[in-house]
Amino acid sequence: MYHSSRESVDEYKVTCIEFIRDISNDYKDWVKRYNLDEEESAWRLEMIDNVVKVSSAWIARYGDTIRKIDVIKDDGINKMAEFTAGYPFYLQVYVDGQLRYAEHKAGMIELEVKARAREEGRSVGITMYNRRMNEIFQLLTATEVSDAVSVLGYDDRLMNAIDAKVILDASKCRESDLISITVVVGEYDERDGLELDKRGFTTLIRII
Questions:
Q1: CB 20 within 8 A of CB 69
Q2: CATH of the domain at 181
Q3: How far apart are alpha carbons 47 and 205 in whole angstroms?
Q4: Which pLDDT tens digit goes with each residue over 159-196?
């Protein structure tokens, strides 16, 4: 539908910024239906609004191609879904101390996955994003070189608390390329290994 002309890119920016804003209302409606306590509900709504703000700013500033705009948009949608669901157990993913949005040079990128089970007798660990498709992570990229990003390895140990690593090889990336990665962590009953819950954490990385 759109061509790679400046006008088409600018039009698509506006379309996607409006789409993110509109769909955020649907996610916020879901939060309100959950009848959560006031503090938790307010936090989730605030985080969704923040995703709209930051994703829109990234589209406006860094979305110089249709593909980059799509990656930022889809990243934002993933984040809104994650905040709508909330986090029943502690989960954070850092890139050089940066949370959710990061800048990093091309090369090896280390994601630090910190998670902690809600109580004793439970464990947490990195699990598959999509078992049916055999996808361990969701990886969205806007790069000038095809297949410029790959996952070299990750730590899949199950423990009551983890500080695990996910290593991305982004050595083929170029300045201003974008990477969105969703890491999913599950919480398990240590007695029988039953998965009790799982949550995703999406990070958008800009190569500098």
A1: no
A2: 2.60.40.10
A3: 19
A4: 999 999 999 999 999 999 999 999 999 999 999 999 99
The residue from 38, 65, 85 where one domain ends is 85
Q: Which domain holds residue 76?
A: 6-85
From residue 197, give the alpha-carbon distance in Å to each of 11, 56, 193, 194. 40, 31, 12, 9
Which pTM was predicted? 0.92
pLDDT digit string (tens) for 101-118? 999 999 999 999 999 999
HEC per residue, the chain: CCCCCHHHHHHHHHHHHHHHHHHHHHHHHHHHHCCCCHHHHHHHHHHHHHHHHHHHHHHHHHCCCHHHHHHHHHHHHHHHHHHHHCCCCEEEEEECCEECEEEECCEEEEEEEEEECCCCCEEEEEECCECCCCECCEEEEECCCCCCCEEEEECCCCECEEEEEEEEEECCCCCCCEEEEEEEEEEEECCCCCEEEEEEEEEEEEEC
